């Protein structure tokens, strides 16, 4: 018998049709990303990635060079009362996968899609491809716990963390504005770029300006993602 708590690993496949889900085994808790830092366009690996709160995060991932698999760390900075996906924007090959890994705090990953508006009210405006199915993870709160998605369809996918921090711990859902802000309100949003999608906002809703009812910090982050996405895909040498 062991005192170790097994880490759950959720595996989803995001395609233009349905989402298939399954429960896999355990991970060893050594999946937190680390490496060199990146600049605001994610086209080099030797500068800082500033998330808008004055924090720099280290990782080894370049936009414009899609990979088969990327780990995204889910982090809480208690000293600053901020929350982050690291890296904020990743670039996958078609059929590639993202594994979200709990580094600290409790978090989830929820796609901006009307089907998720009960958890994420600003998701009433879709920010993933029109034919793609949305996803939502469970609340992950154990260090090393993971949630994994495979993205089959080229496109741009935006997502956020819906968690609210109460005195007794993290919970999913919306807290009273100004009292218990959600992690989205602190700017915990992320993006997955798959393949080499068309940069026309009519084809990729994520490239549209975020809605006015979205929290300011999240809206600012997504606008920055749009600049970085266009720069990386226009300058990329992989297509």
How would you characterize the overall build of this protein?
By secondary structure, this protein is mainly beta. It has one domain: Immunoglobulin-like, CATH 2.60.40. Helices cover 8% and strands 30% of the residues. It is built from 1 helix and 13 strands, in the order E-E-E-E-E-E-E-E-E-E-E-E-E-H. Strands 1, 2, 5, 6, 7, 8, 9, 10 and 13 form a 9-stranded mixed sheet that branches. Strands 3-4 form a two-stranded antiparallel ribbon. Strands 11-12 form a two-stranded antiparallel sheet. The longest helix is centred in the C-terminal third of the chain and has 20 residues, at 216-235. The chain starts with 8 loop residues before the first strand and ends with a helix.
Strand and helix layout:
Layout: E1 9-14, E2 20-23, E3 49-50, E4 56-57, E5 67-77, E6 82-86, E7 89-102, E8 110-111, E9 146-151, E10 155-160, E11 163-166, E12 169-172, E13 189-194, H1 216-235
Parallel strand pairs: 1-9, 5-7, 7-13
Antiparallel strand pairs: 1-2, 3-4, 5-6, 7-9, 8-10, 10-13, 11-12
Kindly, what is the distance between the CA atoms of the first and last residues, rounded to a whole number of angstroms? 52 Å
CATH fold-level assignment: Immunoglobulin-like
Radius of gyration: 17 Å
Question: Helical region count?
Answer: 1
Shape: globular
Percent of residues in beta strands: 25-35%
Poorly predicted parts: 1-11, 16-56
The assigned CATH architecture is Sandwich
Supply the helix-strand structural class: mainly beta
Level-1 CATH class name: Mainly Beta
- What about the largest sheet? 9 strands, mixed
* E-strand count: 13
Mean pLDDT: 77
Helical proportion, percent range: under 10%
**CATH homologous group name:** Cupredoxins -  blue copper proteins
